[in-house]
Amino acid sequence: MKECLTDAFVLDAEDSGEFDRILYLYTRDLGKIIAKAKSSRKITSKLAGHLEPLSLSKVRLVEKNGTQITDAILLRQIENTPAAVKLFQFIKEMTYEFQTDKKLWLTIKKAVEGLKGEKGDYKPLLNILGFSPEFAECGLCKIKKPLFFSPKEQIFFCHSCAFKISPNELILVD
Ligand SMILES: [Zn+2]
Predict the structure, then answer these.
(1) Has residue 120 been placed in a domain?
(2) What is the pTM of this model?
């Protein structure tokens, strides 16, 4: 990649230095990308407001000492709900940089569009990521068809084992 214009979900952002930001993106054309947005925290930056977490934006990525975002236009702001935050965190934890996957992109889009109320629909995402809930068992007690999944540890938990660890980190599969 020398330069790439692509749609991207902004998964997360971290400050870097005085004015820069590190952005975690899931892009249509390149999969997950960790990119720097130079000076984007300056109030005069043309990037400001277009790269907030929970956005869908069109971004221009350039390969220059790592990946840099040189342009960004907000396409859609996703409503800030606990379910949306959890879904974006899930995508950040479960994907790898520069692994283009059009099918996963479409499944993520669908999951974001389907966000409502308290929970997201994780089954299609888990299937495509190779963690099919149908064939899973609890990572601790081996009970079949566990209800929870830990993106951090990438294992399933049944209802009773889930509460032995920290339930906040878990997603509800069903
Ligand atoms: Zn269990």
Answers:
(1) no
(2) 0.92
